[in-house]
Design brief:
The protein has 411 residues and is an alpha/beta fold. Helices cover 48% and strands 11% of the residues. Helix 8 packs across helix 9, helix 11 packs across helix 15 and helix 12 packs across helix 14. It has three domains: 94 residues, Orthogonal Bundle (Helicase, Ruva Protein, domain 3), CATH 1.10.8; 175 residues, 3-Layer(aba) Sandwich (Rossmann fold), CATH 3.40.50; 100 residues, Orthogonal Bundle (Arc Repressor Mutant, subunit A). Strand 7 and strand 8 form a beta hairpin. The structure holds a DNA duplex (22 and 22 nucleotides).
Length: 411
DNA sequence: TGTCCACTGGAAGGGAGGGCTT
DNA sequence: AAGCCCTCCCTTCCAGTGGACA
């Protein structure tokens, strides 16, 4: 094989033993280290379902990567296993970041109980009230205890209010044969403040908080998965502790720790190395951060891209901090250049807030006394990265080598 | 102490676009 | 075809505001 034209393309032996999905956060292992307490607590509440009774509604809190989703899915699996054969408990999971409207949640839930394709609830067209009616009917027909898990429930509430939760919390009053209990999962401890008091008390019959993992616990989690994912001696001794330490710094995020390990291994593999070294973890960290930025920028709507481009070009022109007014002027200029409709300043302030929430820019309200009160805006990601990704957009691409006409500097 | 600037950010509502019902 | 419903994106209107300045 040596000296043939194929030599350079031969892929080195994979560093992964088998399925690399083991290192993805979506993988649910058979054992969840350091979540025994939470599992027991959940089991003690949900055991009621096995007796055919409605378990209390539960709210789970905890930052990202603290194992909330994995734990609840694990418990759900166990619960269904415990009832195998009888099947009198049905466990339903829904992520409210993906389905984030009232109608959407009811429609998706409803369709889980409708197996006949013809009579499925359409994704639009019906009144919410009607969808709720069907859902209630279908749930009642099951004659089971239904446990509905709403992940990222805070996203649903902040976007569409608490009407769905109100419906779901009082659905039992209208059911004759089935029983429903709701489990909400949230990153945000304070989200219940926005709920109607009746919904709040009903939903938080039981509350649980998932603490962040510390570095030691993260090491255990990584070691457990690494055993499944890699052969021995593929990881240098310092790799897992380093991944764990880096993730522990970020509020003990197990998801981040797993990503670091997986990406580090992929990098080492691509370089044809026989093992993963400490340096690969550093490279993985940079790659993950950069990928997050490019992905966030790439998927922005055009108007937001133009606003961001305004920030990028201002920074390039030496105007690193700008006000809403300045940015709006730049934005209008860019719209004219690209023949895009100009939005109002009110709308652009919302886009600025969205970019801020995505972490692409940093905008804080600042008062300049008689100079008025406005936002001070700066880019919070590398300029080059943002610009290159923005220019991949067909419309923004027209602005290559564009120099701003309007330029001011902040006092 | 009051004024005033340049906004901020809430509220209400319009209209386009998707699709169902009658 | 007309009449609904729901969501999304956007506009219009406007009360509220932190702090420099007179």
């Amino acid at each position: 094989m040596q000296d043939t034209i194929f030599q350079q393309f031969i892929r080195p032996k994979s560093l992964f033993k088998g399925d690399r999905d083991v290192l993805r956060p979506s993988y649910i292992p058979d054992v969840l280290p350091h979540r025994e307490e939470q599992i027991d607590q959940l089991a003690s509440v949900l055991v009621t379902a096995l007796e055919g009774q409605r378990p209390s509604n539960i709210l789970l809190f905890g930052k990202t990567g603290t194992g909330k989703t994995a734990t609840i899915k694990y418990v759900g699996k166990e619960l269904e296993r415990a009832t195998s054969g009888a099947g009198n408990v049905h466990f339903v999971y829904m992520n409210c970041e993906i389905v984030d409207t009232q109608y959407g949640v009811l429609q998706n839930l409803g369709n889980l109980f409708i197996h006949d394709f013809e009579s499925r609830i359409p994704f639009t067209g019906w009144s919410t009230e009607r969808v709720y009616h069907i859902l209630r009917e279908k749930i009642d027909e099951t004659r089971r205890v239904i446990i509905i898990v709403l992940d990222e429930i805070d996203k649903l509430v902040s976007k569409s209010g608490d009407d769905v939760l109100y419906h779901l919390c009082r659905i039992n009053e209208d059911l004759k044969n089935a029983k429903v209990s709701v489990i909400g999962i949230s990153n945000d401890l304070k989200f219940t403040e926005f709920l109607d008091p009746r919904v709040r008390s009903s939903l938080s019959e039981e509350k649980m908080v998932f603490p962040p993992y510390n570095a030691e616990q993260l090491r255990d989690i990584l070691s457990q998965r690494a055993k499944i994912a890699f052969d021995e001696n593929v990881l240098e001794a310092s790799v897992i502790p380093l991944c764990a330490a880096l993730a522990a710094q970020e509020h003990g995020d197990a998801r981040r720790a797993l990503d670091l390990l997986r990406v580090a291994a992929e990098i080492a593999e691509r370089h044809g190395l026989p093992a993963v070294a400490e340096g690969d973890v550093g490279r993985a960290k940079n790659k993950i951060e950069l990928d997050c930025v490019t992905e966030a920028v790439r998927t922005l709507p055009l108007q937001s891209k133009l606003v961001l481009m305004g920030v990028v070009l201002n920074e390039e022109g030496g105007n690193a901090k700008l006000t809403t007014g300045d940015l709006y002027e730049t934005y209008k200029e860019l719209c004219q250049c690209t023949s895009v409709a100009i939005l109002t300043q009110r709308r652009v302030t919302d886009l600025i807030s969205e970019l801020d929430m995505l972490g692409l820019i940093h905008a804080r309200v600042k008062s300049f006394g008689r100079g008025g009160r406005t936002k001070e805006i700066e880019l919070s990601v590398p300029n080059e990265e943002a610009k290159t990704t923005l220019q991949d957009d067909e419309t923004i691409g027209q602005l290559k080598n564009y120099r701003l006409r309007y330029q001011t500097t902040l006092m």
